[in-house]
Amino acid sequence: MKRTPSFAPRRSVTCWSLLLLVCVTGISAKAATELEFQLTDGHGPRSLHIIVSNGHLRLQSDAQPGFELYFSAPTQTAYLINHPRRQYAHLDPLQLERNGVAVSSLVGALQNQLSGLDEGRRNRVNDFLKGLGLGKLDTPTKHTGPLRLVMTTKRRRIAGIPCHEGEVLAGNERQSLLCLEESDALSLPLPDRQALVALIHFFMALAESASPLIAALGITLPRIALGKDDTLPIALTDYQQPLQLTLTRVSTSQKIVQPSLPNGYRAVPLPLIAH
Asked: What residues have CB less than 8 Å from 271, skipping those under 6 apart?
Protein backbone atom coordinates (compact mmCIF):
# COMPACT_ATOMS: atom_id res chain seq x y z
CA MET A 1 0.00 0.00 0.00
CA LYS A 2 1.38 3.37 -1.06
CA ARG A 3 2.01 5.69 1.83
CA THR A 4 0.82 9.26 1.62
CA PRO A 5 3.65 11.74 2.25
CA SER A 6 3.47 13.29 5.69
CA PHE A 7 3.55 16.81 4.30
CA ALA A 8 0.46 16.42 2.12
CA PRO A 9 -2.11 17.63 4.68
CA ARG A 10 0.01 20.70 5.43
CA ARG A 11 0.29 21.42 1.71
CA SER A 12 -3.48 21.01 1.32
CA VAL A 13 -4.14 23.45 4.16
CA THR A 14 -1.67 25.89 2.66
CA CYS A 15 -3.38 25.70 -0.74
CA TRP A 16 -6.81 26.24 0.79
CA SER A 17 -5.45 29.18 2.81
CA LEU A 18 -4.01 30.76 -0.33
CA LEU A 19 -7.28 30.20 -2.17
CA LEU A 20 -9.23 31.77 0.68
CA LEU A 21 -6.82 34.72 0.72
CA VAL A 22 -7.29 35.22 -3.02
CA CYS A 23 -11.06 35.09 -2.63
CA VAL A 24 -11.07 37.56 0.25
CA THR A 25 -8.69 39.88 -1.61
CA GLY A 26 -10.90 39.67 -4.68
CA ILE A 27 -14.01 40.60 -2.70
CA SER A 28 -12.35 43.55 -0.97
CA ALA A 29 -10.91 44.79 -4.28
CA LYS A 30 -14.38 44.86 -5.77
CA ALA A 31 -15.95 46.81 -2.91
CA ALA A 32 -16.75 50.35 -3.96
CA THR A 33 -18.08 53.49 -2.36
CA GLU A 34 -21.08 55.11 -4.03
CA LEU A 35 -22.20 58.67 -3.37
CA GLU A 36 -25.39 60.24 -4.68
CA PHE A 37 -25.84 64.02 -4.79
CA GLN A 38 -28.76 66.21 -5.74
CA LEU A 39 -27.68 68.78 -8.32
CA THR A 40 -29.64 72.02 -8.67
CA ASP A 41 -28.45 74.41 -11.37
CA GLY A 42 -31.46 76.42 -12.47
CA HIS A 43 -32.89 73.60 -14.58
CA GLY A 44 -34.55 71.64 -11.82
CA PRO A 45 -33.01 69.06 -9.46
CA ARG A 46 -30.99 66.26 -11.06
CA SER A 47 -28.81 63.51 -9.63
CA LEU A 48 -25.04 63.23 -9.67
CA HIS A 49 -23.60 59.77 -9.06
CA ILE A 50 -20.02 58.99 -8.01
CA ILE A 51 -18.52 55.51 -7.67
CA VAL A 52 -14.97 55.08 -6.39
CA SER A 53 -12.84 51.99 -5.79
CA ASN A 54 -9.10 51.32 -5.48
CA GLY A 55 -8.18 54.90 -6.32
CA HIS A 56 -10.27 55.09 -9.49
CA LEU A 57 -13.47 57.11 -9.83
CA ARG A 58 -16.32 57.60 -12.27
CA LEU A 59 -18.84 60.41 -12.17
CA GLN A 60 -22.14 60.67 -14.07
CA SER A 61 -25.00 63.17 -13.94
CA ASP A 62 -28.54 63.41 -15.26
CA ALA A 63 -27.56 66.92 -16.34
CA GLN A 64 -25.33 65.44 -19.08
CA PRO A 65 -26.76 62.04 -20.12
CA GLY A 66 -24.26 59.86 -21.94
CA PHE A 67 -21.26 61.68 -20.49
CA GLU A 68 -18.93 60.36 -17.83
CA LEU A 69 -15.87 61.64 -16.02
CA TYR A 70 -13.15 59.08 -15.29
CA PHE A 71 -10.41 60.01 -12.80
CA SER A 72 -7.40 58.00 -11.64
CA ALA A 73 -5.90 59.21 -8.37
CA PRO A 74 -2.68 57.13 -8.68
CA THR A 75 -1.81 58.69 -12.04
CA GLN A 76 -3.61 62.04 -11.53
CA THR A 77 -5.28 61.70 -14.93
CA ALA A 78 -8.84 62.58 -15.90
CA TYR A 79 -10.89 62.02 -19.03
CA LEU A 80 -14.28 63.32 -20.10
CA ILE A 81 -16.06 60.55 -22.01
CA ASN A 82 -18.87 60.92 -24.55
CA HIS A 83 -20.35 57.41 -24.75
CA PRO A 84 -22.87 57.98 -27.59
CA ARG A 85 -20.04 59.22 -29.82
CA ARG A 86 -17.42 56.83 -28.41
CA GLN A 87 -15.04 59.72 -27.79
CA TYR A 88 -12.96 61.02 -24.90
CA ALA A 89 -10.97 64.15 -24.08
CA HIS A 90 -7.96 64.26 -21.77
CA LEU A 91 -8.25 66.84 -18.98
CA ASP A 92 -4.69 67.94 -18.25
CA PRO A 93 -4.49 71.14 -16.15
CA LEU A 94 -0.97 72.02 -17.39
CA GLN A 95 -1.87 71.54 -21.04
CA LEU A 96 -5.15 73.36 -20.59
CA GLU A 97 -3.29 76.21 -18.90
CA ARG A 98 -0.97 76.52 -21.91
CA ASN A 99 -3.98 76.41 -24.20
CA GLY A 100 -5.67 78.96 -21.97
CA VAL A 101 -2.85 81.45 -22.51
CA ALA A 102 -3.38 81.13 -26.25
CA VAL A 103 -7.14 81.43 -25.76
CA SER A 104 -6.69 84.58 -23.68
CA SER A 105 -4.75 86.19 -26.54
CA LEU A 106 -7.45 85.04 -28.94
CA VAL A 107 -10.13 86.45 -26.67
CA GLY A 108 -8.51 89.88 -26.65
CA ALA A 109 -8.10 89.95 -30.41
CA LEU A 110 -11.64 88.76 -31.06
CA GLN A 111 -13.14 91.18 -28.57
CA ASN A 112 -11.44 94.01 -30.41
CA GLN A 113 -12.74 92.69 -33.73
CA LEU A 114 -16.27 92.04 -32.44
CA SER A 115 -16.57 95.51 -30.98
CA GLY A 116 -16.17 96.98 -34.47
CA LEU A 117 -18.89 94.86 -36.10
CA ASP A 118 -22.56 95.59 -36.39
CA GLU A 119 -24.95 93.37 -34.41
CA GLY A 120 -25.76 91.04 -37.32
CA ARG A 121 -22.13 90.27 -38.15
CA ARG A 122 -21.24 89.97 -34.47
CA ASN A 123 -24.00 87.39 -33.99
CA ARG A 124 -22.78 85.40 -37.02
CA VAL A 125 -19.24 85.32 -35.62
CA ASN A 126 -20.53 84.23 -32.21
CA ASP A 127 -22.61 81.48 -33.84
CA PHE A 128 -19.51 80.28 -35.68
CA LEU A 129 -17.53 80.21 -32.44
CA LYS A 130 -20.28 78.25 -30.71
CA GLY A 131 -19.98 75.64 -33.44
CA LEU A 132 -16.31 75.27 -32.47
CA GLY A 133 -17.22 74.87 -28.81
CA LEU A 134 -16.04 78.39 -27.94
CA GLY A 135 -19.35 80.02 -27.26
CA LYS A 136 -18.29 82.44 -24.53
CA LEU A 137 -15.13 84.01 -25.87
CA ASP A 138 -16.71 87.43 -25.56
CA THR A 139 -17.17 86.98 -21.80
CA PRO A 140 -14.09 88.09 -19.87
CA THR A 141 -12.74 85.71 -17.24
CA LYS A 142 -13.02 87.12 -13.74
CA HIS A 143 -10.00 86.65 -11.49
CA THR A 144 -10.44 87.53 -7.84
CA GLY A 145 -7.22 86.32 -6.24
CA PRO A 146 -6.22 83.34 -4.07
CA LEU A 147 -8.82 81.42 -2.13
CA ARG A 148 -9.15 80.84 1.61
CA LEU A 149 -11.59 78.81 3.68
CA VAL A 150 -13.18 80.51 6.69
CA MET A 151 -15.20 78.24 8.97
CA THR A 152 -18.42 79.56 10.48
CA THR A 153 -20.17 78.55 13.72
CA LYS A 154 -23.03 76.82 11.88
CA ARG A 155 -23.36 73.05 11.89
CA ARG A 156 -25.88 70.89 10.03
CA ARG A 157 -26.78 67.29 9.28
CA ILE A 158 -27.03 66.25 5.64
CA ALA A 159 -28.20 62.74 4.75
CA GLY A 160 -27.73 61.96 8.45
CA ILE A 161 -24.08 63.07 8.40
CA PRO A 162 -22.92 65.97 10.61
CA CYS A 163 -21.08 68.77 8.84
CA HIS A 164 -19.58 72.18 9.57
CA GLU A 165 -20.16 75.15 7.28
CA GLY A 166 -17.30 77.17 5.82
CA GLU A 167 -17.16 80.02 3.32
CA VAL A 168 -14.63 80.16 0.51
CA LEU A 169 -13.40 83.73 0.04
CA ALA A 170 -11.23 85.47 -2.52
CA GLY A 171 -10.17 88.65 -0.80
CA ASN A 172 -13.42 89.72 0.83
CA GLU A 173 -15.64 88.34 -1.93
CA ARG A 174 -17.60 85.17 -1.23
CA GLN A 175 -17.08 82.42 -3.81
CA SER A 176 -18.91 79.43 -2.38
CA LEU A 177 -20.38 77.91 0.77
CA LEU A 178 -19.36 74.39 1.80
CA CYS A 179 -20.57 72.04 4.48
CA LEU A 180 -17.59 69.85 5.42
CA GLU A 181 -18.15 66.51 7.10
CA GLU A 182 -17.18 66.31 10.75
CA SER A 183 -13.95 64.34 11.21
CA ASP A 184 -14.33 61.04 9.28
CA ALA A 185 -18.13 61.18 9.61
CA LEU A 186 -18.53 59.52 6.21
CA SER A 187 -16.56 56.47 7.45
CA LEU A 188 -15.02 55.88 4.03
CA PRO A 189 -12.20 53.41 3.32
CA LEU A 190 -8.93 55.33 3.26
CA PRO A 191 -8.18 54.71 -0.47
CA ASP A 192 -11.65 55.96 -1.45
CA ARG A 193 -11.29 59.04 0.75
CA GLN A 194 -7.88 59.79 -0.73
CA ALA A 195 -9.25 59.40 -4.27
CA LEU A 196 -12.10 61.85 -3.57
CA VAL A 197 -9.72 64.38 -2.00
CA ALA A 198 -7.39 63.99 -5.01
CA LEU A 199 -10.32 64.63 -7.37
CA ILE A 200 -11.26 67.83 -5.53
CA HIS A 201 -7.66 69.08 -5.61
CA PHE A 202 -7.52 68.22 -9.32
CA PHE A 203 -10.59 70.34 -10.04
CA MET A 204 -9.28 73.14 -7.82
CA ALA A 205 -6.13 73.20 -9.98
CA LEU A 206 -8.22 73.01 -13.15
CA ALA A 207 -10.47 75.88 -12.06
CA GLU A 208 -7.51 78.13 -11.27
CA SER A 209 -4.89 77.28 -13.91
CA ALA A 210 -7.14 76.63 -16.89
CA SER A 211 -9.88 79.17 -16.18
CA PRO A 212 -9.51 81.14 -19.47
CA LEU A 213 -10.04 78.05 -21.62
CA ILE A 214 -12.69 76.55 -19.32
CA ALA A 215 -14.65 79.83 -19.36
CA ALA A 216 -14.27 80.09 -23.14
CA LEU A 217 -15.86 76.64 -23.43
CA GLY A 218 -18.87 77.88 -21.48
CA ILE A 219 -17.98 75.90 -18.34
CA THR A 220 -17.91 77.48 -14.91
CA LEU A 221 -16.25 75.40 -12.21
CA PRO A 222 -17.03 76.27 -8.58
CA ARG A 223 -14.13 77.89 -6.76
CA ILE A 224 -13.62 75.88 -3.57
CA ALA A 225 -10.92 75.26 -0.98
CA LEU A 226 -10.36 72.49 1.55
CA GLY A 227 -9.15 72.72 5.12
CA LYS A 228 -5.81 71.37 6.34
CA ASP A 229 -7.40 68.09 7.45
CA ASP A 230 -8.95 67.47 3.98
CA THR A 231 -12.44 66.78 5.34
CA LEU A 232 -14.81 66.28 2.43
CA PRO A 233 -17.59 68.70 1.46
CA ILE A 234 -21.03 67.06 1.40
CA ALA A 235 -22.88 70.22 0.33
CA LEU A 236 -21.92 73.13 -1.91
CA THR A 237 -23.55 76.42 -2.83
CA ASP A 238 -21.80 78.35 -5.59
CA TYR A 239 -22.24 82.12 -5.27
CA GLN A 240 -20.98 82.76 -8.82
CA GLN A 241 -23.73 80.77 -10.57
CA PRO A 242 -27.03 79.06 -9.65
CA LEU A 243 -25.45 75.79 -8.56
CA GLN A 244 -26.02 73.62 -5.50
CA LEU A 245 -24.82 70.12 -4.67
CA THR A 246 -26.18 68.17 -1.70
CA LEU A 247 -25.33 64.64 -0.63
CA THR A 248 -28.40 62.40 -0.47
CA ARG A 249 -26.89 58.92 -0.05
CA VAL A 250 -23.61 57.14 0.64
CA SER A 251 -23.30 53.36 0.41
CA THR A 252 -21.01 50.49 -0.51
CA SER A 253 -21.43 48.02 -3.35
CA GLN A 254 -19.61 45.19 -5.09
CA LYS A 255 -19.18 47.22 -8.29
CA ILE A 256 -15.71 47.88 -9.62
CA VAL A 257 -14.31 50.89 -11.45
CA GLN A 258 -12.31 49.68 -14.44
CA PRO A 259 -8.95 51.54 -14.45
CA SER A 260 -9.00 52.14 -18.19
CA LEU A 261 -10.86 53.85 -21.01
CA PRO A 262 -13.46 51.88 -23.01
CA ASN A 263 -12.11 49.97 -25.99
CA GLY A 264 -12.66 51.47 -29.43
CA TYR A 265 -13.07 55.08 -28.26
CA ARG A 266 -11.04 57.82 -29.92
CA ALA A 267 -9.41 60.91 -28.45
CA VAL A 268 -10.71 64.37 -29.45
CA PRO A 269 -9.84 67.89 -28.27
CA LEU A 270 -11.85 69.12 -25.29
CA PRO A 271 -13.79 71.78 -27.28
CA LEU A 272 -15.13 69.05 -29.58
CA ILE A 273 -16.17 66.47 -26.98
CA ALA A 274 -19.71 67.87 -26.65
CA HIS A 275 -20.20 68.90 -30.30
From this structure: 132, 133, 134, 217
